[in-house]
Design brief:
The complex is a heterodimer of chains A (about 525) and B (about 375). Chain A is an alpha/beta fold and about 525 residues long. Chain A is about 35% helix and about 30% strand. The longest helix of chain A is centred in the middle third of the chain and has 31 residues. The chains are: A alpha/beta (about 525), B alpha+beta (about 375). Chains A and B meet through helix 12 of A and helix 2, helix 3, helix 4, helix 7 and strand 10 of B.
């Protein structure tokens, strides 16, 4: 049996699952120390389901703590930034496009070192080991704790970064090192940014993961701890300590995957209504459709695959305003809904009050909203539905009506059919879909590199790389028989004489969880 | 116009992405280089061509390589500076001003960076008013200013001088050298005189580029619909400039194919809520033609840009994706680009189309 936990800004949700059955679910307020809310939510599902702790084989946690820390510039470590590419790239050193406050938080410890290879993997200059030794000594003398190493074309050849890491360790054995090949794909600036973000969060990630471990220990749970990453698959707690940046968009991913799991749909639109916002995204082959745009994390450009989600300012706590022309949101009472909404004895009219007045929801004290003018309720409902319909239309790729899955604590806001939707699913446990998404329990791996099909031919090259990715999945804990390639993407490269292709292959498998 | 801070640099790069008409290389790398110069207090100086003496010595610099390689190699200011030194040495005279051969994409922003670094003025003009995939596709070449000698260098100190019979051969030779050096090299080329620039360049494109980028940002901040601002800037029939909002919808199909290292693509879009209203944009590295329900609405060398429907941010060809909500804007090419001798080179026939060129303002009265 396994427990899924989603640590959100407002609530910490937990579910306990056996196979595909949800045995119990709970929602508790997120606490300042996170661990408190986590323990409370897990204890609630254990009590409710009466499952003995010894049966818990694994605990999967989805969290936005790391990304929040970076965005808020809290708990960041100073980072030694090593780039291996000289004489190439000299004109654009690390951090050039970072916001000033972040640059100050990270420190400007930049070491640009000679060596590297072309896109073909052919070396244009050997690694300047002397320069690295000098950098290592300097890092040790400054007492820096985190190092980010980026070499040119690292997704194609990792050995420059690996050798550099070994040299640094010789002189400064205790530093935490991030190699760019572990966290990013082609595009040096964006990959280097990801590596630096990751390095700056490693100290925090050790503390956070440690607090998760302590929470589990306090509950006498001996199961293995996993953390969900951007694409919805899991990584071990040890891997999460190393790669906190890979968790940065786990929130929306988990709730979309959870929606797919609960509804059984592989192709659908997911409407996740929270306290302040509604996220609309598409499931494709059971996974969130991803965006390939450059995206900003706290003002820093990165190129992670992120779920393509449109967020609008509408949620359960959205404030209802206006008389003649009623609008709902984007202002929201957020987590104060339990004090401020009319149905909870407050004085602010919120979207949830409207849902109760319309009869869709039975929460709090319905008599507090029974005297609302029916025209006001009607107009607010129209505004809420039309906002969701507009978002839906913006995200749709064709005019055809699609099935929709409603999840999140605010799903009660929808009480009518939605334009452009063929069938509306409101699955059981919809309000904890994110925790369920965390507990689905799959592991994955991906490889992105530039290849030349040459003599061995396209099929053979794809077969070889696929085997390599599948081995990585098994290494990550996947059950070998369940591992399969889910995505092969080929992008031809322009302006090259050689027939080079940028090849991306992704595979996933079920995690061995003992169920 | 003045480029004195990060915002100015970003506006310039956004304009270069617009005029890149889908190609030209991501201006972001050039933006970072120019930003470095500007933050050091070295501001590029932009002058009008008529401020030049007739016998002034003018030169272009540009990158030759593959866009996905550029984003790993980035740029070396040291190399660009040395390239200028060596080219002046080879030519036997010093350069008075720089001109960007290609306003769209990486090259114009990068040339501004070189101008700032070398404290040379950059002329408010270029050789095409957009982006094209080959170095001979410039007005300079059409009017008999040869690309050669083309000096090519990389960061490792490798260097070649291409002296070719014609500019198409210079392109082939340069491309071969680039491929053998990891697919990204830098070149100094098209040495010209002030007189030639005045007569043969496409004028005022640097300032146009900057105003497009600035207009998109400001309209986004101030207007409900940023496209209103963009059209007000670009549709000025009294100045001979015509701009049309051609389509509002989303991408429903993308077909890419690489033949002989060139990127051929077809982008199919559907109007919101009306699957029968379809626009197809055809590309060869850059967007070339747009057909609205089968009817041609824009044809090369007139410009096409695909922008984010909400923010009006230009989307380069490699970042287009299925499902994006976009708007398509068409812009008339500069009058010089529509002369018969220019159309013979980069009109529809230059890209294998059988049809005649028709101006955007006639196709969409």
């Amino acid at each position: 049996m396994r427990i899924g936990v989603d640590v959100g800004g407002t609530n910490t949700d937990a579910v306990i699952m056996e196979g595909s059955r949800v045995l119990a679910s709970a929602k508790r307020p997120t606490t300042e120390d996170v661990a408190g809310g986590m323990v409370a939510a897990i204890r609630a599902v254990l009590d409710d389901s009466q499952v003995p702790v010894s049966d818990i084989h694994s605990v999967m946690v989805g969290t936005t703590q790391f990304i929040n820390a970076f965005v808020e510039r809290k708990h960041l470590s100073e980072v030694a930034i090593i780039r291996i590419a000289l004489p190439l790239s000299e004109g654009i050193p690390p951090l050039v496009d970072w916001p000033d406050d972040l640059r100050a938080a990270i420190g400007e410890h930049i070491y640009m070192v000679g060596g590297g290879c072309y896109y073909t993997g052919a070396e244009y200059m050997p690694l300047d080991e002397e320069a690295l030794v000098k950098a290592a000594r300097d890092i040790r003398d400054k007492g820096l704790e985190a190092v980010a190493i980026t070499s040119i074309f690292a997704p194609i050849r990792q050995d420059y970064e690996e050798r550099a890491a070994a040299i640094i360790r010789e002189y400064a054995p205790d530093v935490a090192i991030t190699q760019s090949n572990q966290v990013g794909s082609l595009n040096l600036v964006e990959r280097e940014n990801a590596a630096v973000i990751n390095a700056s969060l490693m100290r925090l990630s050790r503390q956070v993961i440690d607090s998760y471990r302590k929470s589990l220990a306090a509950l006498d749970i001996n199961g293995r701890l996993y953390v969900t990453q951007n694409d919805g698959t899991l990584m071990s707690a040890e891997a999460a300590e190393q790669n906190p940046v890979m968790t940065c968009s786990a929130g929306p991913t988990n709730s979309m995957r959870g929606a797919g799991f609960l509804s059984g749909l592989k192709e659908a639109v997911v409407i996740d209504i929270g306290g302040t916002t509604t996220d609309v995204g598409f499931l494709h082959h059971g996974f969130p459709r991803e965006t390939t745009d450059a995206n900003d994390i706290g003002g820093v450009r990165t190129n992670f695959s992120m779920p393509d989600v449109l967020s609008i300012g509408l949620g359960g706590g959205s404030i209802v305003a206006g008389d003649a022309e009623v609008t709902v949101g984007p202002a929201s009472v957020g987590y104060r809904i339990l004090q401020e909404a009319r149905i909870f004895g407050g004085s602010t009219l919120t979207a949830t009050d409207i849902a109760v007045a319309s009869g869709q929801a039975d929460i709090g004290d319905a008599s507090a909203v029974s005297t609302l003018p029916s025209e006001l309720v009607e107009n607010a409902l129209s505004d809420m539905h039309s906002k969701i319909e507009t978002a839906l239309d913006r995200m749709k790729t064709s005019a055809r009506a699609v099935p929709a899955v409603l999840v999140g604590g605010g799903h009660v806001l929808v009480s009518r059919s939605l334009k452009g939707v063929s069938e509306l699913h409101r699955p059981e446990h919809a309000s904890v879909a994110n925790a369920i998404g965390a507990a689905i329990g799959q592991v994955g791996a991906r490889i992105k590199r530039i290849v030349e099909y040459g003599d061995s031919g396209r099929d053979e090259v794809i077969r070889q790389v696929s085997e390599e990715v599948k081995r990585d999945v098994v290494e990550a804990g996947g059950i070998p028989e369940t591992v399969k390639v889910v995505e092969i993407e080929e992008m031809q490269m322009t302006y090259l004489q050689a027939n080079a292709v940028s090849l991306k292959i992704r595979a996933i498998g079920d995690l061995a969880t003992g169920d | 116009m003045e480029i004195r801070n990060k915002q100015d640099v970003r506006d310039m790069a956004r304009g270069a992405a617009f005029l890149g008409v889908g190609g030209g290389g991501d201006p972001y790398v050039g933006q970072l280089m120019l930003q470095q110069e500007v933050l050091k207090g070295r501001y590029p100086r932009v002058i009008k061509a008529d401020e030049l003496d007739d016998d002034a010595r003018v030169l272009s610099v540009c990158g030759i390589g593959s866009p996905p390689v550029l984003v790993e190699h980035l740029l070396s200011s040291r190399l660009l500076s040395e390239l200028m030194d060596r080219m002046e040495e080879h030519l036997g005279y010093s350069i008075d001003a720089l001109i960007s051969a290609e306003i769209g994409g990486l090259n114009s922003v990068m040339t501004l960076g070189v101008a700032a670094q070398r404290d040379l003025p950059l002329i408010d003009a270029d050789g095409m008013g957009r982006a094209f995939p080959k170095l001979e596709l410039v007005t300079f070449s059409v009017y008999g200013c040869p690309a050669s000698p083309v000096m090519i260098m990389d960061e490792l100190g490798n260097m070649a001088i291409v002296q070719s019979r014609d500019d198409a051969t210079a392109e082939m030779m340069s491309r071969a050298i680039s491929s053998s050096l990891g697919a990204m090299v830098y070149s100094a080329l098209y040495p010209m005189t002030g007189r030639q620039v005045k007569d043969f360049a496409v004028h005022d494109t640097i300032s146009l580029c900057y105003s497009i980028g600035k207009c998109i940002r400001e309209s986004r901040e101030e207007l409900d619909n940023p496209f209103d601002g963009l059209l007000a800037l670009l549709n000025r029939p009294e100045e001979g400039r015509h701009c049309r909002l051609l389509f509002d919808g989303k991408i429903v199909d993308l077909v890419h194919e690489i033949r002989d290292a060139w990127h051929f693509g077809t982008i199919t879009m559907e109007a919101n809520g009306n699957p029968d209203d379809v626009m197809v944009v055809e590309m060869q590295n850059e967007y070339l033609a747009a057909r609205h329900n089968g009817k041609t609405v824009t044809m090369v060398p007139d410009l096409l840009c695909i922008l984010d429907a909400e923010t009006a941010e230009p989307i380069t060809g490699e970042r287009l994706k299925y499902g994006q909500r976009i708007k398509v804007v068409g812009l008339s090419a500069a009058p010089i680009m529509r002369r018969p001798e220019c159309l013979a080179v980069f009109g529809p026939g230059g890209f294998g189309y059988k049809e005649e060129f028709k101006p955007i303002e006639e196709l969409n009265p």
